[in-house]
Automatic annotation (TrEMBL):
The keyword Zinc is annotated on this UniProt entry: no
Membrane topology term: Multi-pass membrane protein
Keywords, in A-Z order: Cell membrane, Membrane, Transmembrane, Transmembrane helix
Protein name (database record): Fucose 4-O-acetylase
InterPro entries (alphabetical): Acyl_transf_3_dom (IPR002656)
Superkingdom to which the source organism belongs: Bacteria
Location of this chain's protein in the cell: Cell membrane
Transmembrane segments: 12-32, 44-65, 86-104, 124-143, 155-172, 178-195, 207-225, 237-253, 260-285, 305-326
UniProt organism field: Pseudomonas mucidolens
Residue ranges occupied by any Acyltransferase domain in the UniProt entry: 9-312
Length: 344
């Protein structure tokens, strides 16, 4: 794949990942979001995709990294690019959001003000992904820079290492999202392998791949409906295998869906801002006396997807806001292109 050619299939998967993420945060974990009880079909849907949501996001990041990965000896520029892309929005979006959650009325998650101010160190919201993936980019970038990932064999050895640490007990303190980085690393490496083997995967699994994903989805729905406790442990051997297989199966599908492609172009903005718009939708409809779960979910998903798109279009017009809130290069003053989290 050419480095300057956007893959519509990958944009489709990125849009799908956005949809799954927003749907989950609208429904919420048990006791959060809309506080939907056990037994509800919406609760089953939210729980069933626990092995797919963030693995898919990370798999795509690894895939895109393999296109734009560090080249030559310019590690410093690579590092600065990741700081701009990930750490600047962490401070300019993540911490203010956490503070707003700590002091704002009508929030479901009890976040202390001190915890919110220190959320750059110990994550308290979905922004843990920024810290975790930053660690991964630095780690993998260093290996690449030192020439340690030049063969397929070494890439598979890295996958084995990532799987091993994935299965170890987590650290007691999730300093700078280290537990998240360990959780995501295998899927990132699988994305790298997926890029290297994409043609072989699509040729050999073009029929069975989508079928496998459908079967996995049905099995997860069944398990979530019968006993959600069997499915909510993400950092397990089952979670590792199901996540990796699901991502490869989706890659093999070669899907092109125009609506998802469009959403994929705004995936980073959607990730950063979707909770703000979804929560606003829930609050506004609650004040109007709307309590129908399906209406609340559909409205929350629509606002969580479209609100960030509008915000991104505004921020991208100005160099300062584009850099601070979207992590884009200051020189970019045009409407947002389909830029992956993994690009510098």
């Amino acid at each position: 794949m050419s480095s300057n050619k956007k893959s519509l299939e990958i944009e489709t998967l990125r849009g799908l990942a956005c949809l799954l993420l927003v749907l989950y945060h609208v429904i919420g974990p048990l006791g959060g979001g809309l506080k939907i009880d056990l037994g509800s079909p919406l609760r089953v849907i939210a729980d069933s995709m626990v092995y797919v949501r963030m693995p898919l996001f990370t798999f795509i990041s690894g895939y895109i990294y393999s296109i734009y990965k560090i080249r030559g000896n310019d590690f410093s520029a690579y590092f600065v690019g990741k700081v701009r892309r990930l750490i600047v929005p962490l401070f300019c979006v993540g911490i203010p959001f956490s503070v707003l959650q700590a002091i704002g009325p009508g929030v479901n998650k009890d976040v202390g003000l001190v915890d919110a101010l220190l959320s750059f160190y110990v994550p308290v919201n979905h922004f843990w992904f920024l810290q975790a993936v930053f660690i991964i980019f630095v780690f993998v970038g260093l290996l690449e820079w030192r020439g340690l990932l030049q063969t397929a064999r070494r890439l598979y050895l890295l996958l084995a290492f990532a799987a091993l640490v994935f299965l170890l007990p987590p650290f007691a303190v999730d300093a700078f999202g280290i537990n998240g980085a360990i959780y995501l690393l295998p899927f990132f490496v699988m994305g790298m392998i997926g890029h290297e083997k994409v043609n072989a995967i699509r040729q050999s699994l073009k029929v069975i791949g989508p079928l496998v994903f459908m079967l996995i989805s049905l099995a997860l729905l069944y398990v979530a409906a019968v006993d959600r406790e069997l499915i909510v442990d993400r950092r397990s051997l089952v979670g590792l295998v199901v996540g990796c297989v699901s991502c490869v199966a989706l890659l093999s599908s070669n899907m092109r869906v125009q609506g998802l492609i469009w959403l994929g172009g705004y995936s980073y903005a959607i990730f950063l801002f979707h909770v703000l718009f979804a929560a606003t939708s829930r609050f506004a409809l609650g004040r109007l006396g709307v309590n129908d779960e399906m209406v609340l979910v559909l409205s929350g998903v629509a606002c969580g997807l479209l609100g960030p798109v509008l915000l991104s279009s505004i921020f991208s017009r100005f160099a300062l806001t584009s850099t601070l809130f979207l992590g884009e290069r200051a020189a970019r003053r045009k409407a947002p292109a389909a830029v992956a989290v993994s690009q510098s």
